[in-house]
Amino acid sequence: MSDSMSAGPTINRRRALFGTAAVASTAVLAACAGPQQAGAPSSSAAPSGTAGGGAGLVDVHAHFVTDDYIAAARSVGHEKPDGMPAWPAWNIDKQLADMDRRAIRKAVLSISSPGVHFGDDARAAELARTVNDRATAEVRAHPTRLDHFASLPLPDVDAAVVEARRALSAGAIGVIVMSNAGGQYLGDAALEPLWAELASRRAIVLVHPTSPPGWERTALGRPRPMLEFMFDTTRSVVDLGFSGVLARHPELRIVVPHSGATLPILSERIGLFQKGIGVPAAEPWAKTLRKLWFDTAGTPFPTAIPALASQAGTERIVYGSDSCWTPDAAIDAVLKAIDEAAPPTGARNWRELAAANAEQLLRRD
């Protein structure tokens, strides 16, 4: 199977085009020419100072890759994951050095799209164990700087429950799930055993976008992270809410990336269809929206985060960089935009707010 063909579990790569205007666009295009280079070694000690004031940021949306993982994806044809030009490079020294430079106190590592399921259940379970064990090792080596979200071999629900138990018991702070797994969205009744297990552990769940079914016709030859990822996130999160997963399992802590994707713009319309036309849902959409957490990966300012805050408030907005899939210059441009934005109500700046919110999100009690 390849990115140019329909896949079993539709496989994906998520690299949103970031930054502020031309600076970020130029950086993204430059990064397409090849993987990022490794940086100099860095200390495991958390940075003492912070840019913009406030506590050090926590990056809840930081990706990593391994040679084995990339080889597994390439073996089934994923040379250009989700239509992007190339795989990125990652190593722990550069991860820590970049965190120091950006005054990021801690990062939560995860595997991005296309996830770990490439069509074979047994191999997916093995690959999930492999990448989760690597992340666990990195966290144990740098416990004050790193946490991780475990990958799950969906759509194999039984195997996903087994791996969730194993990884969370080994120290993962939560899990990452793709917005769909071979066309299975997050409100699917088959996923109930997984949601019950995760809720029993009050797990954090990062919903990561991936290529939707039928992307061959809808992406129109463009990288799927540009548009398809945003709409697939929205589709999956609405399904999660309307199907009653969050009403049944209020213990779940769901993180929606990219400033909520298109939810800030579409939430009033979603509510209108629920109330005015009678689209069945477990609870009012406005109530569901207030249960979600959101990260800033993507282009948070000047438009996305203010729009999100107007619909969902600011109490659950946390920082996300989308490294290592996002070029360094684009991440820096986003942080600059965050630092220059008008401060939110109740905080000196957005860094301070995001850091305080992350402390609440990542609490293990």
Summarize the structure in words:
- The protein has 365 residues and is of the alpha/beta class.
- It has a single domain, classed as TIM Barrel.
- The chain is built from 14 helices and 10 strands.
- The strands form 2 sheets. The chain has an 8-stranded parallel sheet with strand order 1-2-3-4-7-8-9-10. Strands 5-6 form a two-stranded antiparallel ribbon.
- The N terminus is likely disordered.
Physical arrangement of strands within the biggest beta sheet? 1-2-3-4-7-8-9-10
Write down the Rg. Answer: 19 Å
Label the CATH architecture: Alpha-Beta Barrel
Mean model confidence by pLDDT? 88
Characteristic terms for this protein:
two-stranded antiparallel ribbon; 365 residues; disordered N terminus; 10 strands; alpha/beta; 14 helices; eight-stranded parallel β-sheet; TIM Barrel
